[in-house]
Write the structure tokens for this entry.
Amino acid sequence: MFGTLDDKGRLFVTESSGGDLYAELERKAKTSRISRLVDTNADGRFDSATVFTDGLSPSMGLVWREHKLYVADPPELVVLEDIDDDGRADKRTTLLIGFGHSDNGSLHGLTFGPDGWLYFTMGNPDGYDLTGPDGSHAASRTGALIRCRPDGSRVETVALGFENLVEVTWLPDGSIIGTDNWFFLPERGVRDALVQLLKGGQYPLHAIQRGDAPVNFNTLLPPIATYPAVAQSGLMRYTGDAFPSDMRDNLFSAEHNTRKIVRHVLTPKEASYSVQDFDFVTTDDPSMHFSDVLEDDDGSLLLIDTGSWYVHHCPTGRIVSSPARGGIYRVRYHDANKPVGKTSATRQRATDRELLSVDSLHERLHNTNPVEVASAARSLGRLEDKTAAVELTSLLGSANLQVRLAAAEAFSTCGDASSVAALTEALAGPTDDFLIHALTFALHRLAGREALENGLMHPSPKVQRASLLLLAQPPFNAATPEQVRERLFADYEPLEETARWVLEQHPDWGEVGAAFVTALVKLTAPTEADRQALSKVIPQFQSHQTVINAVTGCLVPGPYGVSDEQRERLLEALSAGQLKTVPKTWAGAIRELLTGNKPMLLAHSIEAVNALRISGVEPALRRIARDANQTADLRISGLRELVRREPKLEEPDFSFVTSQLARNQPSNVRLAAAETLLAANLSSEQLVPFLKAIRNENLISPFSVLTAVERQGLSDDPVPLLDYLNASLDSGWTLPPERIVSMQNALPPEHKADMQRLLEKLNESAERQRQKLSEYEPLLTGGDHGRGQVLFYNKATCSTCHSIWGIGGKVGPDLTKVGSIRAGRDILESLVLPSATIAQGYDLLNVGLKDGESVSGIRVGKSEDPLILRDAAGTETRYHREEIKSIERSKVSLMPEGLLQQLSRDEIRDLLAFLQSLK
């Protein structure tokens, strides 16, 4: 999985058991080990291996330092020593304990920085709660970069908010760069990132809660480069001389999903960097997945391929009978005349000594090379050298923003109150996001209340923003309603965002809140930030009568003068806000809106009724559902909400919604109609025409039909259901055998044999589906991607659930750059056997409710309360924690398994060509 070299060139590699990584982490299964590999004859191949230690939890990080191996063994970080040098660890010391261990985002990425500190990373949702031997403490519920001294003391959080920060490395100027997966929720083909990490930095995806960090910056630092779901893993900076000189100081990363080692060339851009990427090693071998890359002492690179055993949430098929176990590869530069420089280990030790020499660091502050100056400034900051403040002040005026950034980072530990004026002046000058953060963090450490209050009167909106942000938080908690009110619509967007964020922290400021809500509703050209602010601020003030009155006044016709479009926006915000209770006047106003006849206003009112669980609307919903003058999708929307309240469908409603299953209806209408019928309690008489209507329907999963039938109980005549299930198998679907066995046990004796034949057919069908992978494999080449694009949006109905560049549905993963992260065979497997590997974040959740009902869907966002589910039709419903009895992940994908049945071989070839072209 990951590797490290010791000072004798021996390679230590963590090895997993090849089992379920998540399950083994959660139960702390001690099934993994570390091997020590030795190249005994110096020919570049490791020819001797010993088990250095075993009995480890899945270990995703290790690093060698001064005769000790530091190892991730969740929930512990341990130190292993081989006292007698026999290749086997015989001493184990626990350095820190308290790492979460339920996810592959657990403890990983161990590395020593040039400052001599041990750095390591954590992901979400595991979190950590660590106490060093000196009593130092670090804790967070989000992913983070953490560091401590080699003995575990002075443990502290460096940066946080990550979903899965994997590994970090240092640039020559002392900047920290890391690989981060799930920087964004996937959208328009982007998910992962390279990030520059600053002290106190806060990053997506997770909100920083009170207590997670000494100060909440309310803004997230941007990435320096973004990628599709490449699943970046190990990262290193090349320091050797064996490769061409233009590769010196390049970064190299391992991309698990793309089967690549990528070379990153960083170029200064303002205070940070831009990134240019080059493929360094690539392969189409579906069994290879690179997880780590490191530099050997001779300047060659070692690549660790973890193989194909890891299939948890990754685009690797589960159908391989013998998963590859991986291997280690060496990359050399073939130039016999090129001399080999000092070994990387020797260079690292020399660098450490130089960086830890305070006198040499002060000398380097006056160097003409900005990289040397920045490196020295950051090193002095990490050493907390208070004598450097005067020299650092002069660097804040440097024409080079990267030097300014390094000085600003150092000030947080090297400065004092006398440095505040220089920091303020620098903040008012040329900056970027990174420099603003570093200067603000330094002010957080050094500025007093009076200086911050003076900052609110500074002409620079950047200074005002930093002052307001810091005044509003401990230790001051001194921001006033008036200071916030006058900046809620500031021209400088970060100042506006900060003022709004501060307001959200003060639900007692009702008068300001009411005025703000009203102003937001009445905007004629609101931005997306305005829309989000409305949905955030209302829940914070929902118990304040002034705000209740303002929202009520905006919902109903009256003196507020709100247009229908503005009212729709308010309903949208009420639906998106996390409201657990709804004031009576709001509920009454929404009930009144349901009695109108304007389609868009009715659609938003139905969404609000759903999200807010407003009672007493059943007659209005029934009227909408039966109004032939309204569109079919609006009528279905009303009926779907009615079914949640009154599960039995009356005949007029059943006839209408069944008619919308016709093949000539748009796919989204058919899906919405099916979801409505599946949520209803159909009578035996209604079940037969429903099953007939969806027979051979490739969009509607028989798994969902089975769930609905089981919820209602089998009818006395199971023949229609058996016929439907047989037809589904003929159409290419598969079914969970255990569900069929369960139904078989519930059937009367005369039908058990029919179900047994269905089981046998199911086994044959599953095998046929596997065979189709081989049959279809020749279709991976030679297609026309233009014709495939037409199929994607039309006959193949892919866009019903998937989007490309923002166009299409949101039920399945965004496919904008699927061709760059999935090999052709992986794409084919997803089409033929979609349940074999389900993309992370798109698991179908089966949720049992305390009232006895059961619902299913894809989770939307990260919220635990309320849990938001999106069904196959794209409809979203919120469920609060107190409503939920159980949550289970389904092994079955929502994606139709019979998708390719309706296409000819040439059409399949074209569709595959289009999907592979999305890069």
Observations:
- Confidence is low (pLDDT under 50) at residues 339-351.
- Residues 785-916 form a domain with the SH3 type barrels. fold (CATH 2.30.30.100).
